[in-house]
Design a protein that fits this description.
Oligomer: homodimer
CATH class of the largest domain in chain A: Alpha Beta
Number of domains of chain A: 2
CATH architecture of the largest domain in chain A: 3-Layer(aba) Sandwich
Distance between the termini of chain A: 25 Å
Largest interface: A-B, 57 and 57 residues
Chain lengths: 352, 352
C-alpha cells in the first residue's frame, strides 16, 4: 500500500532489511558505539548543541515527559488544532496549572496573540505544535519564540516536521523539541527523541513529582554512560543510524527540505485548481496538505476507491472529517509518486 | 554474538526477516485485523480473561503505569533485589505513599513475611517481581497471592519469565501482570504488555493524577476500537504475531516451559559441580542462573574471554558483581547451545 497519510510512512526496502540484523546487548560496548554515532547525527538533524535523548515511547510520551519535568508554576498551551489540544490535556492530566490561548483550526498562532500573556510572572512554560497535522498548518515558531521571555521555557512538538523542514532548534531558542521515527525520518514507529536545553535541565531540578520513567535526571545519567535508560528497540536504532547517514550525507538536509517544499507546492496547486487549501495562506504545512472539500465530495468513498488502487490518504481530522481530506507528502516520497496519486484522484473524481 | 545474558536475547533469523515487511497505517483496517489476532494470543500466553494492553514503552514504563493508575492509599513494595527496589522507587517518585518489606537478595519473599502487613486497612496495592533477575530468584507468587485480601490489588512484574514459565494470571489472582518482548518471547525490545483485571480498572477510576500517556481509561478507549493508543512499533507487532503463533501452536506452551526448566537444571547442575548456585534452594529462577563465585575467579576476565569466543554472559548485578555471574537460558535457546557455552567456560577456566 502506498501511504500518503500523515504517518506512519512507507519505509524503503533497504532500510527495512537493516531491521533484520542480529541483536546486541543494550549494556554492551557495541551498543555504546552505536549510541555515539547516533547522538551527533541527531544533533546535526536538529541543528542543536543541546542534549538529545532517545526514548522508548511514542512522541506523546515525550510530551508528558516535557510537562512533568519542567512545569512548576503555570504552563501556557497554545492551541489551534487537535495536537495543541493534546499538550493542554497532558498538562492538565498531570496536575499542572495551565491556561490556553486558542485560535481556530487553520489560523496560525502569531506573536501578537501571545506577547502580553507570556509576560505574566507565573507562566514558566509555553507549549506549541510546529506542524499541526490536524489542520495541516505550520505555526511560525521563530516569530512566537521572539515573544517568550528568557526565563520561560519553550516546548515545541515537531513530530510531523522534523527531518522534512528546516527547524534550527538553537537559533529559535527551543528548550525542548520532540519528534519520532515514523514521520519525516521515513522509519517505522517505535522510538522518540527530544532535544533539551541546559535551561530546561536546570529548571527540572527544582520540579517535584517528575515520576520515574520520563525523569530527566535518569536520561542524563544514562547518557553519561553512552546508553539509553531502558532497553530500546535495537533494530530501529540500526536503521535510524543508516537513515540519518543517508539524510545528512547522501541526500543532504537542504535538498531534503527542498523536496518537501516542492511536494507541498505540487499538492497545493492541485488543491487550488480543484478544491481549496484549508489553512490560512502562508501557513500551510510543508509535509501534508488539508484539502478543503469545496466540491462536497464523499471523502470516505474517495478513500475507499483509492484503497482499491493501493493508495491510502486520510480523511479530515476529528471535526474536519468530510470537510477536508489530507494528503501526506513526507519522508522519502518522490514528487513523481505524489503526481501519480493525484492522477488517480483526478481519475476517480473525473477531474480535468 | 551468542547472547546468554538475561536479555535482550538472540532473535531467530526467520523472525527478524518478518521485521522487514512493508508498513501499514496504525488506524487502518489491516491494523485492527492484526490487533484482533494478537490480543487473544496474548490472553492465551498469560492464561487470563482479563484485558491485555499493548504499550509503546519498555516494561519499566508499565511499572509506572501500574502505580499511577492504582495506588490511592498506600502501596506495599516487596523487595528482594534490584527490580523489586525499582518498583519502590517508581512508587515514591510518583508521589505515592509506600512501605517496603525487604529480604536479602537470594532469599524469597514468603507468605509469612507479608500476611500481617497486607491486612492493614490503608494498603491498597502490593508489588512484586516474579523472576528477580538481579539475584536470579523466583518468588512464590501463588503463595504470596493467598495472603492478599480481596480488596487489595496485586501488581506483578513477570518481565523475565512470561513466556518461559507457567504463570496462570487468573488462577494466581494477579491484577496487573506486565512483561515485554525482549526476554522469554525471544523478540527484539520495544513493546510492553500488561494484563489488567476488572478490579484494577474499577480502582483506577477513583485514582487521581494518572497522567495521560499511561492512563488506563485511554488504553480502554482505544482497545474498544481495536487499536493501540499511540503509534506502536508495527514491525515488532508483525513478528510478535508470528512468534505467538509458534509458541502457542508450534512448540506449545507446556513444551516451552519444560525446555526452560531443563536448561535451568543443566546450568544449576554445572554450577553446583564447579561453584554454587546463589539464591536459596527451591527458589532458583528458571530463565537465568546466578552462579556464586566460590572459586573467586575474575568474572570480568571470564566475560572478556567468552566474548572473544563470541559468547556473552553477564556479571552479577550491582552489589553482586564479581561475587556472582549470570547465565541467561531463555527464549528460543536450545539445551545443546547452552551445553556448548558451558563447555567453553570449562575450557577457559580449566574445569573438569
Amino acid at each position: 500500500m502506498e501511504l500518503f497519510i500523515p504517518g506512519p510512512v512507507n519505509v524503503n526496502k533497504e532500510l527495512r532489511e537493516e531491521l533484520s540484523k542480529p541483536m546486541i546487548g543494550h549494556r554492551s560496548k557495541e551498543f555504546s558505539e552505536l549510541y555515539n554515532e547516533l547522538i551527533p547525527k541527531l544533533k546535526k538533524l536538529t541543528q542543536t548543541r543541546n542534549k538529545v535523548f532517545i526514548s522508548t515511547s511514542s512522541s506523546t510520551g515525550l510530551m508528558e515527559a516535557s510537562i512533568r519535568n519542567t512545569v512548576s508554576k503555570k504552563c501556557l498551551n497554545l492551541v489551534n488544532g487537535a495536537f495543541g489540544r493534546r499538550w493542554h490535556n497532558i498538562t492538565k492530566r498531570n496536575g499542572k496549572k495551565c491556561e490556553t490561548i486558542s485560535k481556530e483550526w487553520g489560523e496560525p498562532i502569531r506573536k501578537g496573540d501571545v506577547e502580553e500573556k507570556v509576560k505574566e510572572k507565573d507562566i514558566d512554560c509555553v507549549t506549541l505544535i510546529h506542524n499541526e497535522s490536524s489542520a495541516a498548518l505550520e505555526n511560525p515558531v521563530e516569530e512566537i519564540s521572539e515573544a517568550i521571555p528568557d526565563d520561560t521555557l519553550f516546548l515545541v512538538d515537531t513530530v510531523s516536521s522534523m527531518g522534512g523542514v528546516d527547524i534550527p532548534v538553537d537559533e529559535w531558542d527551543i528548550d525542548i523539541c520532540l519528534f519520532g521515527t515514523q514521520k519525516c525520518l521515513g522509519l517505522p514507529p517505535g522510538l522518540a527523541f527530544f532535544t533539551v536545553s541546559q535551561k530546561a535541565i536546570e529548571k527540572s531540578k527544582e520540579v517535584k513529582d517528575k515520576g520515574y520513567y520520563f525523569s530527566l535526571d535518569r536520561f542524563l545519567s544514562y547518557d553519561s554512560k553512552d546508553q539509553t535508560i531502558t532497553t530500546p528497540n535495537i533494530p530501529l536504532l540500526y536503521v535510524l543510524n543508516q537513515q540519518l547517514e543517508d539524510i545528512l550525507n547522501e541526500e543532504g538536509l537542504e535538498k531534503r527540505w527542498k523536496r518537501h517544499k516542492e511536494m507541498a507546492q505540487i499538492t497545493r496547486n492541485w488543491a487550488k485548481k480543484h478544491f481549496d487549501v484549508f489553512p490560512n495562506k502562508g501557513y500551510e504545512s510543508k509535509t501534508l496538505t488539508a484539502v478543503e472539500n469545496t466540491k462536497n465530495i464523499q471523502v470516505t468513498k474517495l478513500i475507499q476507491k483509492l484503497r482499491e488502487r493501493n493508495y491510502l490518504i486520510s480523511n479530515g481530522y476529528g471535526k474536519l472529517s468530510e470537510k477536508t481530506f489530507r494528503i501526506g507528502h513526507l519522508a522519502d516520497k518522490k514528487p513523481s509518486q505524489l503526481r501519480n496519486l493525484l492522477k488517480e484522484i483526478n481519475d476517480i473524481l473525473d477531474l480535468v
